[in-house]
Amino acid sequence: MGWFTSWLTDHMALLWIYVAALVFWGLFLHSYFRNKKRICNGMFLCLALAVTFASIVLTCARYAYLPWVHVILWFFLIPIFCSPVILVAVGIFLIINGRIVLKREGKALTHFLSILLGVGMIVTVCVISYSIYQTAQGAPKFTFLANMLIFVGGYYLFLLLSFLLSVFLYRFNRPNRNQDFIIVLGSGLLGDQVPPLLARRLDAGIAFYENQSKSARAPKIIVSGGQGANETISEAEAMKRYLIRNHIPAEDILLENQSTTTYENLLYSKRLMGQGTGTASCVFVTNDYHVFRAGVYADQVGIQGEGVCCKTAAYYLPVALIREWIAILKLHWKTHLGITFGMVILLLAQCVIAI
User: Fold this and answer.
1) Given this model, what pLDDT does residue 144 score?
2) How far is 108 from 173, CA to CA, in rounded Å?
3) How many angstroms separate the CA atoms of 110 and 45, rounded?
4) Which of 336, 316, 333, 335 is nearest to 113 (CA)?
């Protein structure tokens, strides 16, 4: 048993990392299969992947003397060493993408989001690099700035990656075709016409309606959306006309024409469903970038439904996802602000103690 005790002592740190990886994978699987519309699914998956990555790197480092292990080790270390370059490259991509969106979609405030995030990423990497260099040259006053940007920036990068993973996972959701209602969420009109973005949502709703009708009773379609300032009719009315032109019976269409936000879309649609069966089943239809947040709101208003998504033009996806991420952050802004403030205070305290 002496050899086993010696081996266990030498490998205890690695074993704890393996245990942590298994715990995070277990938490992810439990959370995901319990409710797919939770941001913590992405958080647990992000942590599980990070700890698994660390366990592989440390295991390879432990056995780097073997002829083939150091090749695997460098394969995993290169992305770490190149992370500043990768972040700058992503920032440049977001700036280029933002210019494309502005050219094709116009100069709306939200269309600048990818440019702002791209510039922020590049500036952050440059400032961190400069601060680390100055600290190495004997200028400790830059230590706080470097640490603050690393920790705070790392926290929000973690939140962004968690959100993207949550959105990615939810796209694989496949609701059963035995629903009472299909809720199609509005997205704005061009005058009284359905624009391409909204048409894709309606087409996805029509496809679900037709597929279910082949094997079960036809569901009701709730078209949800009020009338905007520059719109001559409500979104719901325009959506109803589109559905009728595409051979959906008028008696299978219900109008919800009071909502102005995604949350209201679902809240008011729930009231319409409550006039029917009371415990109605449903799906809500929207774009792929939007379906996760719609699912979060569905849980908040008490709708036990799942999302069906349609594709979005690739050039528009980064801006749309950034906007959705900000909307998700706003749901718990006090928590995020408190964590950010706490990190800054702790880093300040560390600097004061060091002095």
Assistant:
1) 83
2) 32
3) 29
4) 316
- Give, to the nearest 10 degrees, the angle between helix 39-62 and helix 69-81: 130
Residue 305: name the closest of 179, 127, 139, 185 by CA. 179
CB atoms within 10 A of CB 78: 10
The DSSP H or E segment spanning 10 is helix 2-10
Q: What is the pLDDT of residues 233-292, one digit of tens each?
A: 999 999 999 999 999 999 999 999 999 999 999 999 998 887 444 467 899 999 999 999
Q: What's residue 9's pLDDT?
A: 57
pLDDT at 30: 96
Strands 282-287 and 306-310: parallel
Check residue 87 and give its pLDDT: 95
Instruction: Note the pLDDT of residue 349.
Output: 86
Q: Cα–Cα distance between 49 and 179 in angstroms, integer? A: 35
Contact 146, 132 (CB under 8 A): yes
Q: Angle of helix 317-331 relative to helix 141-170, nearest 10 degrees?
A: 110
Residue 172 tokens read as: 């694989």
Question: Using CA atoms, how far apart are residues 70 and 342, in angstroms rounded to an integer?
Answer: 39
Please name the helix (run of DSSP H) or strand (run of DSSP E) that holds residue 184, with its range, or none. strand 181-185
DSSP collapsed to 3 states, 112-162: HHHHHHHHHHHHHHHHHHHHHHHHHCCCCHHHHHHHHHHHHHHHHHHHHHH
Do residues 284 and 268 touch, judged by C-beta distance below 8 A? no
Q: What is the pLDDT of residue 105?
A: 84
Q: Which ranges of the chain have pLDDT less than 50?
A: 4, 275-278
C-alpha pair distances (Å), 124 with each of 127, 141, 143, 146, 321: 5, 17, 14, 9, 21
Closest CA to 125 of 175, 99, 91: 91
Q: What's the rounded Cα separation, in Å, for the pair 182 and 213?
A: 12
Give the pLDDT score at 275.
47
Q: Using CA atoms, how far apart are residues 259 and 224, in angstroms rounded to an integer?
A: 7
pLDDT at 337 (0 to 100): 95
Task: Give me the pLDDT at residue 276, please.
Answer: 45
Q: Which two tokens stand for residue 289?
A: 């970038």
The dihedral through the CA atoms of 14, 17, 18, 19 has a sign that is positive
